[in-house]
Automatic annotation (TrEMBL):
This is CRISPR-associated protein Csy1. It comes from the Bacteria. It comes from Megasphaera elsdenii.
Length: 401
């Protein structure tokens, strides 16, 4: 979430192009795009079947693709190599000025929505890059719409049931997954987490307010090793699904850390998107308050995932760390056997934060190696800044008990 102009400028800078060159180079892929609501790749990543439900809202209490607030996903023919502009169109952007306001903006919209509304905001953002707005909007509005396919695909594993007394006719018992509903649910859950963060932030005007929480969420990933081959909006974080009760979905077996929580429990590839954002920030030559706030928000994205994993370990039966080689500080943090000590003596916090900082630097180095990018060297001041961000969160948790 953030400035459209900044998003495009950052993408262009990575390719060593101007924003106009970057847009022109990617717009030629528009003939590979189809606006879709149901995408067969969510059943099998090689299925090319896709369709678009453009029926009117029914308003009868059932959530359908016609009733969803966000009605577009984009099927891309050819996979992740051609998804650049599609990714931009379905990304959310805020009209707020500061990073903090953008994070708190619950009315952000996708670039696709701004184009369709002919919003002055997106016109201003595009023209600020020296790009003509009207021709670009015209191309966006004419992306082709998915039609009913002429035939199905055997890999969809659809279930047909014969209709009695009607020879050769069948009921279709399984349908294509409505991807936009899965995405809309995920967006609403993440928005709820955003409200929760603001209500717990003493600097926020919403501090102390009420918020909802969803325990035992299930994260669903599609597409195997390369999730982008499913559709443009299936990010590496996957989609969040509410628990189905009854029956209650059993949680994944927790892998206990042996020597170091960060290196043993946090697989760095899981954070590829966030590491990419961090790398882009490091390469930006601007050094101002907005950039510092942006860096802090990126680090907080890491912190949220880390606290989730730590909480899972804290809920295990007390004493599990005695069979490991964890440092005393990490054991105090993660093992409920040391719960009272964790609250009474906070000397464990800073060593844990330094462990986090070292892990993050190591993960960033691995990311640059895989992406074949020259790693930006970091100073001790930056390492301490990363650690300080986690420190403030952990100290707040201790205060809140």
């Amino acid at each position: 979430m953030g400035s459209i102009a900044t998003y495009i400028a950052d993408k262009a800078a990575k390719k060593k192009q101007t924003p106009a060159e970057w847009l022109d180079g990617n717009l030629k892929n528009f003939d590979r795009y189809w606006v879709s609501s149901h995408i067969g790749r969510y059943t099998h990543p090689d299925v090319a079947v896709h369709l678009h439900d453009d029926s009117a809202p029914v308003g009868e209490g059932y959530l359908t693709t016609a009733d969803a607030a966000v009605k577009q996903d984009i099927f891309v023919d050819g996979g992740s190599a051609f998804m650049t502009i599609a990714s931009f169109l379905v990304s959310r952007f805020s009209q707020k000025e500061t990073i903090a306001e953008q994070k708190a903006d619950l009315e952000s919209k996708t670039a696709w929505q701004y184009f369709h509304e002919d919003s002055p905001f997106i016109r201003r953002e595009i023209e600020s890059l020296g790009v003509e707005y009207e021709p670009l909007r015209e191309k966006v509005l004419h992306i082709q719409i998915s039609k009913l396919p002429e035939k199905s695909d055997a890999r969809l594993k659809q279930v047909y049931f014969p209709i009695p007394d009607r020879d050769g006719e069948y009921h279709l018992l399984s349908i294509l997954p409505p991807s936009i509903l899965m995405l809309e649910l995920t967006n609403r859950i993440r928005m709820t987490f955003q409200i929760q963060r603001m209500c717990r932030d003493k600097k926020s005007e919403y501090y102390g307010g009420t918020y909802q929480t969803f325990p035992d969420l299930t994260v669903v990933l599609f597409g195997g090793a390369n999730v982008q081959n499913v559709s443009v909006r299936n990010s590496s974080l996957g989609m969040q699904v509410l628990p189905s009760l009854p029956p209650c979905l059993t949680g994944r077996k927790i892998k206990l850390p042996k020597r170091n929580f960060f290196s043993d429990s946090l697989y760095w590839r899981r954070f590829s998107d966030t590491l990419s954002d961090l790398d882009a920030l490091f390469r930006d030559q601007r050094h101002n308050l907005a950039m510092r706030k942006r860096r802090e928000n990126i680090i907080l994205d890491f912190v949220e995932a880390i606290l989730y994993e730590a909480n899972r370990l804290q809920n295990l039966p007390a004493g599990w760390s005695k069979e490991t080689e964890l440092s005393d500080e990490q054991a105090t943090w993660l093992d409920e056997a040391y719960g009272s000590q964790r609250q009474a003596d906070t000397d464990w916090i800073w060593p844990v934060c330094l462990d986090f900082s070292r892990w993050l630097v190591n993960a960033y180095g691995r990311f640059c190696g895989i992406e074949k990018r020259k790693e930006i060297s970091l100073s001790n001041a930056e390492l301490h800044s990363f650690a300080a961000t986690l420190e403030s969160v952990l100290k707040q948790e201790v205060r809140e008990g």
